[in-house]
Amino acid sequence: MSEKNKMRIQKYLSSNGVTSRRKAEQMVLDGLIRINRKVAEVGDKVVLGRDKVFVNNQRIIPNQEKKRYIMLNKPRGYITTLQDEKERKCVSDLINEIHERIYPVGRLDRDSEGLLILTNDGEFANRIMHPSKHVKKTYRVTLHSNFTDYHLARLCEGMKIDDYITAPAQVSVVAEEKERVVIEITISEGKNRQIRKMCEVLGLDVARLKRISVGGVKLGRLPIGKWRDLNREEINRLNIRKSKE
């Protein structure tokens, strides 16, 4: 059998819009994936056009649909998932007119808002999320706290959060009023709730957190709760092997 007719199971799952390649690997490790009658192992290959692949005993139909790349302005109060057993509001509620099976690239926590990219292109998603790509993400943060040069320096130089040290960030003050400061923070990591945790370490009260750009692609004036397709220039800007940011 020619190697051209085979595909590693992680790539097969991501290419067919099931999830990102990194998450697919974890699903394989958790024993959730089956190739024909055999529980898949990391590194197993799928024979295209012959093998049947199952996720939680549900067969994956090979993806013949066109690739979609969506930008959503996620509102606060929505969770970054396609379904939720607790019946909370999901981002899928905002894109239910899209027929392709797309999924979020990365996450925004429930209380955060702004730019969220969704796609059914697993390779594209993996290139954005993989830590080695260092794709930059910029957030606008409204603080109900005094903000000093000390806070600015600490955020810029990196700090200990949980069990890791954050990489240096780019920080600028956008607006400053009495008991209200707006800053922009650019990071190249994707740690869980990283911006909120950085502010928490410094005793800063985050009133609003909004992601405004990913990899140089900006949210712009897209209304809250609305989505649009990325244009070709934006797709090319994100579809990188090594970040040039």
What would your notes on this structure say?
With 245 residues, this protein is of the alpha+beta class. It is 20% helix and 30% strand. It contains six helices and 17 strands. Strands 7, 8, 9, 10, 13, 14, 15, 16 and 17 form a nine-stranded mixed beta sheet that branches. The chain has a four-stranded antiparallel beta sheet with strand order 3-2-5-6, with no helix packed on it. Helix 1 crosses helix 2 and helix 1 crosses helix 3. The radius of gyration is 20 Å and the shape is elongated. It starts with 5 loop residues before the first strand and ends in a 7-residue tail after the last helix.
Which structural category fits the helices and strands?
alpha+beta
What is the terminal separation in angstroms? 42 Å
Question: Uncertain segments of ≥5 residues (pLDDT<50)?
Answer: 241-245
SSE arrangement, N to C: EHHEEEEEEEEHEHEEEEHEEEH
Number of strands: 17
Main beta sheet, described? 9 strands, mixed
What are the main properties of this structure?
single chain; elongated; nine-stranded mixed beta sheet; disordered C terminus; 245 residues; 6 helices; four-stranded antiparallel beta sheet; 17 strands; alpha+beta
Provide a short characterization of the protein structure.
The chain has helices at 9-15, 21-29, 122-129, 149-157, 194-201, 232-238, and strands at residues 6-8, 33-35, 38-39, 45-47, 53-55, 58-59, 69-74, 103-105, 113-119, 137-143, 160-161, 164-165, 170-177, 180-187, 206-214, 217-218, 227-229.
